[in-house]
């Protein structure tokens, strides 16, 4: 395969951090050649699982999520969608491309939206052991109130990856909305922390995702027994976990954008995976 030679004396980007101090790549437009990566992952014959939860009213987000995933997510690779829902009959029928399949898995609902969101960690850890280990090489775990807007491919895959939240990336660590109460398992002191990661997109190899989701679930169970709930629920616990188990790739906010005007943020060249606006109050009431 012919491609431009990597230029050792010419950085791919000079406006942003492209590698963390623990030598994990930060994935930005301009830092990778997708053709080289596609070839590498095809040689591995990699299958990628995408987990998404659509419980109660959030089922309405599924159609756009899946349709846009068919256009932009891991195109040309084998993909298994794992749809967790309390309403299997209402999962939209989508025509899938070759090499892509869907499993619809029933989950219980909870009265509080926070419990629906937090229990995703428990469910993913159970299914990782029970099923995903046999069926896929990598897992990508996403929120459903999202749409793919541009290419999201194998450049994101690694043993353990997290995504930088678009709302805080320019801030100092003491301004990150980490859990600050020492009573919580998610506690992070003011002088610690690398990035503020989102729970809406994370993943890695199945064993690594199993370890992460199990640890976050167990930490939330300890908090529950101690009558404390972390400020941003499982996202707070994810941040604590990734502080102590450094991700091997970090996705830039291109991979989690809130569709603000890109020209106000010149370092963001592509908006790949976009948070949809929702009326939280209406969506979360029964
Ligand atoms: C943020 C995070 C989310 C999670 C949450 C916890 C973003 C983009 N996402 O989202 O990952 O950490 O904070 O506070 O900032 N769900 C249902 N049915 C429900 C409620 C939730 O299926 O009734 C699922 C669904 O997949 C949804 C996810 O749980 O995408 C997270 O819930 P959310 O989107 O309401 O949480 P939000 O927007 O505060």
3D architecture notes:
Its main location: membrane. InterPro entries: Glyco_trans_6, Nucleotide-diphossugar_trans. Belongs to the glycosyltransferase 6 family. The chain has 286 residues and is of the alpha/beta class. The chain has one domain: Spore Coat Polysaccharide Biosynthesis Protein SpsA, Chain A. Helices cover 28% and strands 19% of the residues. It has 6 helices and 10 strands, in the order βαβαββαββββααββα. The strands form 2 sheets. It has an 8-stranded mixed sheet. α3 packs antiparallel against α4. The longest helix is centred in the middle third of the chain and has 23 residues. The chain is globular, with a radius of gyration of 19 Å. The N and C termini lie far apart (55 Å). The mean pLDDT is 96. The chain binds uridine-diphosphate-N-acetylgalactosamine. The site of uridine-diphosphate-N-acetylgalactosamine has 20 residues, from β2, α3, β8 and α5. The site of uridine-diphosphate-N-acetylgalactosamine (UD2) has 20 residues, from β2, α3, β8 and α5.
How would you summarize the topology of this molecule?
Layout: E1 26-27, H1 34-43, E2 47-54, H2 62-72, E3 78-85, E4 100-106, H3 113-135, E5 138-142, E6 146-148, E7 160-164, E8 197-205, H4 206-225, H5 234-244, E9 249-251, E10 273-275, H6 280-284
Parallel strand pairs: 1-9, 2-3, 2-5, 3-4, 7-9
Antiparallel strand pairs: 5-8, 6-10, 7-8
Helix pairs in contact: 3-4, 4-5
The chain binds uridine-diphosphate-N-acetylgalactosamine.
């Amino acid at each position: 395969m012919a491609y431009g030679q990597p230029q050792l004396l010419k950085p791919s980007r000079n406006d942003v951090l492209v590698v963390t101090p623990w030598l994990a790549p930060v994935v930005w437009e301009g830092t990778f050649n997708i053709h080289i990566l596609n070839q590498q992952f095809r040689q591995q014959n990699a299958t990628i699982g995408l987990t998404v939860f659509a419980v109660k009213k959030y089922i309405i987000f599924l159609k756009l999520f899946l349709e846009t995933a068919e256009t932009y997510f891991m195109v040309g690779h084998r993909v298994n969608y794992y749809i967790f829902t309390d309403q299997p009959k209402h999962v939209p029928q989508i025509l899938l491309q070759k090499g892509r399949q869907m499993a619809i898995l029933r989950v219980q609902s909870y009265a509080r939206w926070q419990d629906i969101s937090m229990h995703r960690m428990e469910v993913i850890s159970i299914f990782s052991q029970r099923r995903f280990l046999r069926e896929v090489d990598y897992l990508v775990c996403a929120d459903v109130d999202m749409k793919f807007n541009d290419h999201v491919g194998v450049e994101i895959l690694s043993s353990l990856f997290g995504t930088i939240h678009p709302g805080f990336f320019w801030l100092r660590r003491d301004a990150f909305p980490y859990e600050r109460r020492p009573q919580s398992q998610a506690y992070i002191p003011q002088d610690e922390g690398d990035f503020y990661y989102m729970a809406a997109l994370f993943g890695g190899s199945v064993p690594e995702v199993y370890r992460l989701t199990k640890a976050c679930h167990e930490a939330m169970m300890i908090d529950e027994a101690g009558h404390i709930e972390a400020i941003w629920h499982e996202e707070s616990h994810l941040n604590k976990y990734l502080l102590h188990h450094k991700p091997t790739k970090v996705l830039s906010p291109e991979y989690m954008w809130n569709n603000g005007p890109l020209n106000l943020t010149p370092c963001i060249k592509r908006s790949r995976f976009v948070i949809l606006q929702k009326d939280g109050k209406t969506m979360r009431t029964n």
